[in-house]
Amino acid sequence: MKWTSIIKISIDVAMYLLFLLLMGQYLLRDAPHEWLGVTAGILFILHNIFNYKWYTAIFKGRYNAIRIAQTAVNLLLLLTVFGCMLSGIFSSQYIFSVGNGGTIELGRFLHLVTTAWAFILMSVHLGLHWTNFIGIAQKITINPKTQIFFRWFFRLIVIFLCIYGVYLFIDRRFWEELFHLIDYQKEYDESKTFLIYLMESVIMSSLFTAVTYYIKKFALYKKQSHRKKTD
């Protein structure tokens, strides 16, 4: 594996983990939350620098349904993450402290909504590119029977994660953050530890990642079936 690929993967993993940590704001507050946000923002900028070729090719080639969907998700994710960064600066109380009362309130409003949408879009983006990770795993040589076992084992895990992810989405009333149906200071279950809240965020993210992956896989299957019929 090339060193550039290793760096890109390391940046993506670190950025994903930081975003999950930032989702637990009520447990990791104030200055630590802001410093983690700044770090995640820097990693996001580096991610885009390393993937600059995507921008140079955006107006090239033909667009099918899958490419349209991927482009839309990427642009919306770019917009929401920049929204997170700007609103975080406006509502900052420790690192930047540039806003007044009205600016801080606006920043908090935008930060709640853009963070929630960025969380979902990030998970969808991961699902659209999950085949890359599967391709790496498939290069590992193992016994065919063992391979079948692990394949079904992971499928069962995915089913569990999706079911539990739906439960968490409802239990945490996540739609309230998506559409700002609550005040900035949302009530959280104070009995949950940081580790539990972090794992729940991973599971909820896995729901959107898995659903996106299988929708894309089904779309590619239908496309291949259509080609076979027309050949």
Task: Determine the mean pLDDT.
Answer: 89
Question: Count the strands?
Answer: 0
Assign the structural class, choosing from mainly alpha, mainly beta, alpha/beta, alpha+beta, or little secondary structure. mainly alpha
Determine the fraction of residues in helical runs and give it as a percent range. over 70%
Total count of domains:
1
Largest sheet: none
Keywords:
mainly alpha; single chain; 231 residues
Task: Please provide a written account of the structure.
- With 231 residues, this protein is mainly α.
- The chain has one domain.
- Helix content is 77%, strand content 0%.
- The protein contains nine helices and no strands.
- Helix 2 packs antiparallel against helix 4 (65-90) and helix 7 (144-171) crosses helix 9.
- It is globular.
- The protein starts with a helix and ends with a helix.
- The model has no long low-confidence stretch (mean pLDDT 89).
